[in-house]
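Input.
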Amino acid sequence: MSAPLTSFTQRATPHALALFRVVIGLLFASHGASSLFGVLGGAMGQGGTIPTGSWPGWYAAVIQLAGGILVILGLGTRAAALVSSGSMAYAYFSVHQGTALWPIQNGGEASAMFCWAFLLIFFTGPGAWALDRVFFGSDEPAAAPAAQREPSAA
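Output.
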């Protein structure tokens, strides 16, 4: 990669991660809100809500709403992302995998993508614009590894 492009992408990475975090969190929270409150088409797009306390749907919806909001805000981001990723892995293997091998065949694309997206957020951190930084000063972007840094003029 050319030096100007590399420099730009390194500067933009925390902001791109933050935008990714916000979009994924919003989509995830929307799933939870639709299942819990019947908005945005309701539970599974069929209207209505999931009965309170029903296993595992209601608990998954609570994780989706709370985890999505926390991830949007960048508050407790890594913990929220890990729990959210785990809930989607559980959803994929307990609900979808038994139907067919591939996500395209078993309706599990959203579960698989959310699982991997939240796992990525867990490992990369919240990026810029996170409340974690405001309250705790944590999750500062790590310095680029030595192999990726531009050589210094010494």
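Residues 141-147 have pLDDT under 50 and may be disordered.
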